[in-house]
Amino acid sequence: MKNSKSLLRQSHFLGTKIRNLRKRNNLTLEDLSARCIKVSAEEAPSVSYLSMIERGKRVPSEEMLTVIATVFQKDAHWFLDDEPEPQDITPAKGNHGGISGMALEPSFLFSSEVLQIAIPEMLSQTGTTGRQFAHLLIRAHQEHHQNHFPDLERAAESVGHKRMPLHVDDLVEIAENVGLIVKWFDRASEDIVDDQGEQSKRVISSFFEPPKTVYLNEQLKKQQTRLKYDLAVHIGHCVLHNNDGMKSVMVAGRNQSYGLHEDHSQQHSAATLDSQDILHAWRDFECSFFAGALLCPKVPFRQLLDRRGYEINVSEYLAVSESVVMRRMTAVSPYPHWHYFDAYAPGKLKAVYRGNGIPLPWGNMRLVNDPCQHWSVFRMINASSTGTEAQISILNQGDIPKIYCCESIKVEDLAGNHHVLCTGIDLNPALDAQGHDSVAIATELKFACMKNGGETAIPNKIKKILLSVAQILNIAWIERGINNEARLICSRGIQCPREPKCYASDICQQNVFDVQQIQAQIIQSLNN
């Protein structure tokens, strides 16, 4: 490293490089300062000092620059004038929304008038209920906004005052302060058979009765984390909707999307799109998001995750469920490319969030018989192991291979059903942010897996790059995933990328009626 006088003469672009790296990694000044403190509390810059460094008002000491360089996994010399900044380190500008859609042409077919006529018939033909359709709309809205709902965050902070952790007594006090009366009932879980013939258990955990009474099941006393969540949801209903009663019964069990309602839409024809279905589903989502924001307020929870490397076990410190922690990660992290799955055996998704656009591990939200067995969320359903498990996966999105890392854990709901929670990120944007060619790296890792039957130890060259990215993102379970074998995964069926394929797809492909191929053959024969 150069002496201090040399550093001063070579620091003209230092502030710009730090700012660009910070923005490229979606970090605030507070985030970067906190990351530096983890490296060295003595040499870490304060938020105000970082701001002055970025504006060229101050030059960091050699020791401070070394700390900043460590956070971004760069050599300290890289920040000086004689090391040019690659163009691909410059922060991308433009739309910061979530999953991009597709242009719908001709546009007149997608007018509100035509859709209002077509949607009920579409639901009737597909067997989709009005409630299921509502959840699809909500999920699309959630993914478009990358799980950011600042109005709901502010509403939760207005009653919780950003306190963390909140105890049951705190939530009971908040409930009383907003005018709720709490009463208890006792009802055990019941065995049910769903519409796919699968047996499971279901239990009513709580419900609201206008004008201001919340009924809680005595079973919740055995599971304090769920008790806190239910209370937080009902507080949300009171704060957001003034106890108007448009609130679904809260039920624990595998059939409940968002775990918040009894799917009464099955009581009438799927062709009937009841506007109340959509309203109830949206209210349930709002109250659920509010509950997470109340139990894990954004700023202190983000700081806690940063200190603990985004470990799932922060749920034990806060005395909240792993589900709340994993969902809130997707909402508070500065890195936007997250996904979350909640899966019940044998192949049923209860909740989904895909801010990174990852395909579903099986085709839809219903039960299917042939999901890809190599997704972490599906492998753990029948596994006897406890604790969390990290996995690096390679999945084609269209023709582009993507590298994902996830952390999964098996838990038990209030009714006694086992299910698997999985949260993960798309690593390609993080690789690109550091100037790497993510597609080339993913392609190399994909072929390495294919040569080894679908899974392989990650080559040292790629491992080193991924470890660097993991440290920049400050997510500890990425490092654990890198030390495990990487696995090829697919949506299902004939898309399987493994050699040999997991599915008997060759026979299916022999009989595919490929219109474009036939068209090309006709033109070729006529030209000859």
UniProtKB/TrEMBL annotation:
Residue stretches making up the HTH cro/C1-type domain: 18-79
InterPro entries membership: Cro/C1-type_HTH, DUF3612, IrrE_HExxH, Lambda_DNA-bd_dom_sf
Pfam families recorded: DUF3612 (PF12268), HTH_3 (PF01381), Peptidase_M78 (PF06114)
Signal peptide from the UniProt entry: none
Family, as annotated: Belongs to the short-chain fatty acyl-CoA assimilation regulator (ScfR) family.
Protein's UniProt name: DUF3612 domain-containing protein
Protein's organism: Motilimonas cestriensis
